[in-house]
Design a protein that fits this description.
CATH topology: TIM Barrel
Pfam family, one: Radical_SAM
CATH architecture: Alpha-Beta Barrel
Order of helices and strands: HEHEHHHEHEHEHEHEEHEHH
Bound molecules: ligand FO1, 5'-deoxyadenosine, iron/sulfur cluster
Largest sheet: 9 strands, parallel
Oligomer: single chain
Function: Catalyzes the radical-mediated synthesis of 7,8-didemethyl-8-hydroxy-5-deazariboflavin (FO) from 5-amino-5-(4-hydroxybenzyl)-6-(D-ribitylimino)-5,6-dihydrouracil.
CATH class: Alpha Beta
Radius of gyration: 19 Å
Number of strands: 9
Organism: Halomarina rubra
Low-confidence stretches: none
Mean pLDDT: 95
CATH superfamily: Aldolase class I
Family: Belongs to the radical SAM superfamily. CofG family.
Protein name: 7,8-didemethyl-8-hydroxy-5-deazariboflavin synthase
Shape: globular
Length: 367
């Protein structure tokens, strides 16, 4: 039983035979993808205050230093991104910061907001206004929270990381796999194009890896909303002295992801954390968001490769490198499980607008 699944009423029927079959997959069972994609983004770390203390994470603040970007700072970073030709504002958060920190709550109140999600609405408006499409990853979200901001996002996401109970999530406040799955399900119910993924090397077993990928597949089969699954190796840093997974491990997890998921779902490997050249033949077809402007605020020790480097990777693999938007093309038309178009009228209007940003979005699409 997945920890927290009952509490969040997540009822998945993962067939043990499917798990066994997936565990038998090797890189020889898959091949290289016909093209590689990436998105140009800016990181907007809206707040680094977090109610959790994942032991591998350097993103979260210790109490007393909880930080919140001001609307002016959000606008400034978005404008720099837009000027540099980006299409995506990636909003990252600590989970439920206003719930845990009164200082965050008070600062938000000063700016006229009741909650971090209300502030996220304003931040998304700023991004759209500056010519970027929002992709928000606020961690776990309730249905009310997600519904509050869905119409201003091109897509959203949360890493499942793992379905297992691992030490790395331990301590007095721990992430609940059931709650992450419930967040992914909520996105499906609301018809939000969604990014999720597994974090490899945080103490999970091979069985847990297979189960995590099958859990994602099952939710995707219900709602058709998962656009990509990130296979992310845990990166060593000053809080995580443990190991990062080796190439053979990554190759096998990527191959398992490729086999577990339907073709329409991309398999993403971040080029600043993983030796992508050595996993490309296992079915990777996306390199995620890469920023010409900002650091990877989650893993600041790991610099983005320059676009030239991505081009060289693709060239050596003899596949084309194509820029994409933060929402994958198949969501531009058609509807989600709730019969509503995947894209809100608001986001659709930005794509069709006779503005410089609209032209930039359409140029990426026609590439
Ligand atoms: O550069 C990163 N991008 C991360 N992204 C962003 C991703 O690279 C792009 O924003 C998406 O591919 C959309 O274009 C995430 C997005 C999510 O929804 C959930 C988790 C992540 C995690 C990371 C990450 O650790 N580093
Ligand atoms: C945005 C995502 O970044 C991931 N994340 C947090 N810390 C690390 C790390 N040291 N290495 C790799 N990924 C990490 C988490 O899985 C989170 O969901
Ligand atoms: S990974 Fe996310 S949830 Fe965990 S401590 Fe870092 S910011 Fe918080």
């Amino acid at each position: 039983m997945i920890p927290g699944a009952a509490e969040y009423d997540v009822d998945l029927a993962i067939d043990p035979e499917d798990t066994e079959r997936l565990l038998a997959v090797t890189p020889d069972d898959v091949g290289p993808a016909p093209e590689l994609t990436f998105a140009r983004n800016v990181f907007v770390p809206l707040t680094t205050a977090c109610r959790y203390t994942c032991t591998y994470c350097t993103y979260y603040d210790v109490p007393g230093q909880a930080s919140l970007l001001s609307p002016e700072e959000v606008r400034d970073v978005c404008r720099r991104g837009s000027d540099a030709g980006c299409t995506e504002a990636l909003f990252t958060f600590g989970d439920d910061p206003d719930d845990r920190y009164t200082a965050v709550h008070d600062q938000l109140a000063d700016w006229g907001h009741d909650s971090i999600h209300e502030y996220l609405r304003e931040a998304c408006e700023i991004a759209l206004d500056e010519g970027l499409l929002p992709h928000s990853n606020p961690g776990d979200q309730t249905r009310e929270q997600m519904a509050h901001v869905a119409d201003l996002n091109a897509s959203m996401g949360v890493m499942l990381e793992t379905t297992a109970d691992v030490q790395a999530h331990g301590g007095p406040r721990a992430k609940s796999p059931g709650q992450r799955l419930a967040t992914i399900r909520t996105a499906g119910e609301l018809g939000v194009p969604f990014t999720t993924g597994v974090l490899v090397g945080i103490g999970e077993t091979w069985h847990d890896r297979a189960e995590s990928l099958l859990a994602i597949r099952e939710l995707h089969e219900r709602y058709d909303h998962v656009q990509e699954v990130i296979v992310q190796p845990v990166a060593t840093n000053e809080r995580w002295r443990g190991e990062t997974p080796g190439v053979e491990t990554l190759r096998r997890v990527v191959a398992m992801a490729r086999v577990a998921l339907p073709e329409a779902v991309s398999v993403q490997v971040p080029p600043n954390l993983a030796p992508v050249r050595e996993v490309l033949d296992c079915g990777v077809d996306d390199l995620g968001g890469v920023s010409p402007v900002t650091d990877d605020h989650i893993n600041p020790d790991y610099a983005w490769p320059a676009l030239r480097e991505l081009e060289a990777i693709a060239e050596d693999a003899a596949v084309p490198l194509c820029e994409r938007l933060p929402v994958y093309e198949r969501f531009l038309d058609g509807s989600g499980a709730n019969d509503r178009p995947w894209l809100s009228e608001r986001v659709r209007a930005e794509l069709d607008a006779p503005t410089a940003a609209g032209e930039r979005y359409r140029a990426v699409l026609s590439d």
